[in-house]
Amino acid sequence: MPVYEYTALDIKGKSIAGIIDADSASAARQKLRSTRTYPTSIKESAASTDKVEKGRPALTTLFSRVKPSDLSMVTRQLATLVGAGFPLVSALDALLPQTRSKVFKKILVQVKDAIVEGNSFAGALSPYPGVFSSLYTNMVRAGETSGTLEIVLQQLADITEKQQALKGRIRTALAYPVLMMFIGALVLFLLLTFIVPTITSIFSDMNQVLPAPTRFLIAVSGFFKSCWWILLMCMALVLAGARSAKKTTGGRYVIDRATLMLPLLGPVIRKLSVARFARTLGSLLKNGVTMLTSMEIVKNIAGNSLISRAIEEATQEVSKGQGLGVSLGRAEVFPNLAIQMIQVGEQSGELEQMLEKMSVVYENEAEASIMSMTSLLEPLMILCMGLIMGFIVLSICLPIFEMNQLVG
Fold it and tell me: What is the spatial distance between Cα 364 and Cα 370, in angstroms, rounded to a whole number?
């Protein structure tokens, strides 16, 4: 449905501006007049041609996707307005002028109109799973049912902000090592492809057997010089194959299983997935969502198909009356400490609080592991670069030393 920007006069003669969706400009005018708002100008918004299907903008708005930071900010502001006594539609109206993203603004307009038409807030959010996740929609539904919508919105904003803060700290910790790795690989590629062949060409006229390190360096350099495009093509094929395999259920399961078995990275990924599971499940249970429904939701946000399958199997066991801790422990995917904490929470009747503590524990452990890995990775990369450069220098110098001995 097209979106129109308008300026109008309200019943008191005050000039106002906003956006509205309607089938045509005349329909938009009629809709405004029905709310005792009298438009003075109305035009179709530039964003109206960018259709949003299931919360995903079209190609023309590819770089205008809704950011998690924008979602958390709007959620917190909406919680404040609802808590202050604003009706939900009025609160959304107040937030529209402050929303910077045109795509997000259009979605909010359509959500507001759906509420005006008689839909619940959760029902109005459900057509946009790309923006409002199943976690978000189900927590809103629970908040509407229990009459604690402002509290639920505050918790949703907290969850989003904590997840973004953790991702930001991890990205910051990995930025320098990744940059160093990229620059080091580029320098080695340029050395072996262009510089080393020029230097080693002086040894081609020597009528003697070159040292083994020099022969090896010349062979590697020649391979890079003549077949570098094959290497790039192989890397592209491997990446494309991995991406295609990850789209299939079996391929994704194999990749995720191999990822969890990696020596250093695997435990970190496991801890992050467990922390995400615990925080989400705890928030859902705390807001009145049933255990089975909550398990169905967290199954889709685990981030690893192996862990998702373990949660799915545990859901079936819980539906038969088994405890959550015992059901998760059978898959042998969750850490023993996590299983013990869940069992203690079940026995004490404080499962929600225990899940929240568990999420904090594993988030802190994952962050500490990443920090220690990056602190070790930097000197290790410098050492490797030094050894490779030393080998290149030695391989070039050995024939020169032999030539000097022959001349002497």
Answer: 10
Domain ranges of the chain: 1-49
pLDDT of residue 339: 92
**Residues 274, 268: Cα–Cα separation, whole Å:** 10
Q: Count CB atoms within 10 A of the CB of residue 314.
A: 24
Rounded distance between C-alpha atoms, residue 169 and residue 166, angstroms: 5
Q: Answer yes or no: are the C-beta atoms of 22 and 113 closer than 8 Å.
A: no
Return the sign of the alpha-carbon dihedral for residues 277, 279, 282, 284.
negative
Q: Using a cut of 0.90, tell me whether the model's pTM lies above it.
A: no
pLDDT at 140 over 60: yes
The two three-digit tokens of residue 118, written as one number: 């008689």
Say which CATH architecture domain 1-49 belongs to. Answer: Roll (3.10)
pLDDT at 53: 43
Residue 380 CA to residue 388 CA, distance in Å, equals 12
CB 46 within 8 A of CB 5: no
List Cβ<8 Å contacts ≥24 apart for 73-81. 73/157, 74/99, 74/104, 74/108, 75/153, 75/156, 75/157, 75/160, 76/153, 76/154, 76/157, 78/153, 79/149, 79/150, 79/151, 79/153, 79/154, 79/157, 80/150
Could you say which DSSP state residue 7 is in? E
Residue 9's beta-bridge partner residues? 15, 38
Q: Among 316, 278, 313, 314, which Cα is nearest to 298's? A: 278
pLDDT of residue 342: 93
Label residues 123-142 b or e (16+ Cβ within 10 Å = b): bbbbbbeebbbbbbbbbbbb
Q: What is the token pair recorded at 379?
A: 């000197």
* Structure confidence at residue 46 as a pLDDT band (50, 70, 90): low
Two tokens, residue 3: 């979106």
Cβ pair 200, 217 in contact under 8 A: yes
pLDDT digits (tens, 9 = 90+) for 347-390: 998 999 999 899 999 988 988 888 888 888 878 888 988 898 89
Give the residue-averaged pLDDT of 92-108: 84
Asked whether the predicted pLDDT for residue 233 surpasses 50, the reply is yes
Backbone angles phi, psi at 287, to 5 degrees: -100, 20
pLDDT at 396 over 50: yes
Flag whether pLDDT at 60 surpasses 80.
no
Beta bridge partner(s), residue 16: 8
How many other CB atoms are there within 10 angstroms of residue 379's CB atom?
Answer: 9
**CB distance 284 to 268 below 8 Å:** no
Q: Which positions ≥6 away from 238 have C-beta within 8 Å? A: none
